[in-house]
Design a protein that fits this description.
By secondary structure, the chain is α/β, with parallel strands linked by helices. The chain starts with 5 loop residues before the first helix and ends with a strand. The radius of gyration is 17 Å and the shape is globular. The chain has two domains: about 170 residues, Vaccinia Virus protein VP39 (Rossmann fold); about 45 residues. It is built from seven helices and eleven strands. The strands form two sheets. The chain has a seven-stranded mixed beta sheet with strand order 3-2-1-4-5-11-10, with helices on both faces. A four-stranded antiparallel beta sheet has the order 6-7-8-9.
Amino acid sequence: MEASNLFYRDPALYDAVQEDSGSAAACRALIERHRPDAATLADFGCGTGRDLGILAERFGCVGVDIQPGLVDYARRVRPALDIRLGDMRTVRLRRYVDAVVCLGNSLAYVHDNDGISAVFATFAAHALPGTLLVLCSPVSPTVRPEPATATVATPAGPAQVTIGYEWDLRTQIDTMHRRWALPSGDEAHDTIRRRVLFPRELEHYASCAGFEVLDMLNDPNAALTGPIAYTVARYAP
């Protein structure tokens, strides 16, 4: 799991830029549609706890993330939340929940097949028959011949970010190179490597862990991150 992402080095910036991502609302709507009686939830790869805080308005929640800086920030800014440091490939919370979620492309930071299988085993370890799984992850590469530039609102003012992509077919790694022109006049660079799992692959990993896929939906708010989809599955071992 890599920490080169500028947002991981600056959690407050991460929170501000992703404030209107819509992930929590989309996740809640999917849970309401497929498991309206759900009362408890575990979020693996919860980051700063931004989405978890919204979901906690409806569910009893626990969150896990591997990045110490994000967990420390989340505990400081959102002290009411139960957020723990852990690797979603191996963590065991010793509890079962009605909904397991993995948002923000967290699954895409696991690049090898064994690691992905381990993550799905973690999902299953916290599930009972009927537990819902909601994932948000890239389902196809972003292929652009030229870098794209966008303006991003930050607490200090607008920043310009230029994004270029590099696709490795064999490893299915989509590498995003970003150059930031920050309001302070400083420039920052980061490189983010995400594993693309195509829809039938996602279904395979889910099925091997005991989950039955119910639905897949494109994320309409993924303009800067490429083709992203929500996968919804039910634990039926």
